[in-house]
Amino acid sequence: MSTTLVPPTTASARLESIFDDVLRRNPGETEFHQAAREVFDSLGRVIQKHPQYAEAAILERICEPERQIIFRVPWVDDAGQVQINRGFRVEFNSALGPYKGGLRFHPSVLLGTVKFLGFEQVFKNALTGMPIGGGKGGSDFDPKGKSDNEVMRFCQSFMTELYRHIGEYTDVPAGDIGVGGREIGYLFGQYKRITNRYESGVLTGKGVGWGGALVRTEATGYGATVFTEEMLRTRGEDFDGKRVLVSGSGNVALYAIEKVQQLGGIVVGCSDSSGTVYDEKGLDLGLLRQVKEVDRGRLSDYAEARGADSDYRAGARIWSIAESVRVDVALPCATQNELDEADARTLVRSGVLAVAEGANMPCTPEAVRVFAESSVLFGPGKAANAGGVATSALEMQQNASRDSWSFEHSEQRLHEIMVGIHERCAATADEYGEPGNYVLGANVAGFTRVADAMLALGVI
Ligand code: NDP
To answer: Under CATH, what is the fold of the domain 219-384?
Structure first.
C-alpha cells in the first residue's frame, strides 16, 4: 500500500484510490468493503479540512487491522466425534485503548465478517468518548442445537488458543450473536484456569455474581431505544403510542422491546431466522423472555403459547408487516443486510418516522438511501447500538476498581452516554452542513477522534 506524504490533487481522488486498494487487498470480503465504503463516503470534506490526515496516511492505516489471528478449534461432540471449527480475532485499532469488541458464533462467520464488524467497532468505540480501541472475533461454530456440554467444550478449546492474545490492557472480548452469558462464563472459566489469574477485566458480559456489571445485558437494546427517542425528540415526537417493529428476538431485540414498552410504545412484531410474529395489541414480553432466555425456544413456541393473540408467519420477513399496518418506528436488531431497499420503501409507505440500527449494518446502502431521500430519521449502528460497548467499558471500570454500581446508577450512565453520542453526531452533521445526517455525523466524529490519536502516536 502506498504511504506517500505528498497530498493528492483532490480529496475524493485520494479516497477512491485508497478504497481501490482496500478492494484489491481484501478480495471477496464484501461486507468489509460495504462497511469501508460507507465510512469513505462521509470523509471527503474531512480530508479536505484536515490535510494532516492524508499526509500521515491515516486512512490507509485505519483500513489495515493491526493484527489478524486465525486458528483451529478442535472439540469433541456428545457422540464422541471430533469436530473442527475456525476461530478468529481481528485486532483492528488500539489508538484509543485496548481492542474491544464482541465474539460472534454463527455458521456464516468468515474473516470478512469479522473484519467488517471490527472496522465498524473502531469508530463506534471512538464515538462513545471512552478509552477503548476496536476489535472483533468469533467462529463459524453454531451453538444452536448443541448441548451445554458441547458448548462448554467448544468454548474451552476456543479460549485455549485465544487466551495468549487477550488481557485487560490488550484486548477485551465480549458477546455478540450466539455468545451470551453462558458462553462468556465458559470462556472466562478457561481463561482463569489457564492463566491462574482472576483477571475480571479480560472479558465483559460476565454474570453479575462474578464480575459482571448490572445493565450490560440490557445495554445495547436500551441504548438503541434511547438514541431513537433522542432522534424523535428533534421532531417534537416521542415513543408514546407509537407502533414499533423490532427484528430479531435475541439479546439486543429483547431489551429494545422492553425499553420501548417502558416508554409507552407498542411493539407489534419481532422475528427470528425461521419466521415473524405479529401481535396486533403488542408483544407479551414476559412470555417472550421465558421462551427465549429460559427455555431457549423459538418464536413459533412463543406464538403457540400466546394463542389467538399472536399471528406467527413461518418464513416471513418482519418488514412485510408494514405492507398492511402502520409502523412508526423500525428497529432492526438481528443481523447485517436484513433490511433492503424494497423493505425500506414498504416502511416509508407505511409512514415510518424513525429507523435505528440495533444490529450492525442491518440496512443495505440502498435502504439507507431511501430513508435519507424520504427524510426518515435514521440512526446508524455505530451510534445507535454503541450502548453495549459503552456499558462494557463501564464493566471494565468497575472491575479495575473492584466496585459494583447499582442498576439505577448504571442505567443513568448509559442514558447520559447515549444522549452524548446523539449530540456528538448531530453537532458534527451540523458542522459539516448536513443537519440531521446521523450517518455523516457518526462517521466523521468517530473517525476524527481515532485519527487525532493516531497522529499523536506516530507511525506505528
Ligand atoms: P443474539 O444471538 O442474541 O440474537 C440474534 C437474533 O438475530 C436472533 O433472533 C437470531 O435468530 C437473529 N438472526 C441472527 N442471524 C440471522 C440471520 N442470518 N437471519 C435472520 N435472523 C438472524 O445476538 P445479539 O442480539 O447479541 O446481536 C444482534 C445484532 O446486534 C448483531 O448484529 C450484533 O452484532 C449487534 N450488536 C450486539 C451487541 C450486544 O451487546 N449483544 C452490541 C452491538 C451490536 P435465530 O435465533 O433464528 O438465529
So the answer is: Rossmann fold (3.40.50)
The confidence score (pLDDT) of residue 12 equals 86
Any idea where the domains of the chain sit in the sequence? 8-63, 67-198, 219-384
Which atom of ligand 1 is nearest to 252's Cα? 25
Catalytic-role residue among 100, 115, 136, 259: 136
Closest-CA residue, ligand 1 atom 7, reads 334
Residue 6, pLDDT above cutoff 70: no
| Percentage, residues of the chain above pLDDT 90 | 97
136 is catalytic: yes
pLDDT by residue (tens digit) across 154-176? 999 999 999 999 999 999 999 99
The residue whose C-alpha atom lies closest to atom 4 belonging to ligand 1 is: 250
Looking from the CA of residue 358, the nearest atom of ligand 1 is 30
Homologous superfamily of 67-198: Leucine Dehydrogenase, chain A, domain 1 (3.40.50.10860)
N- to C-terminal Cα distance for the chain? 15
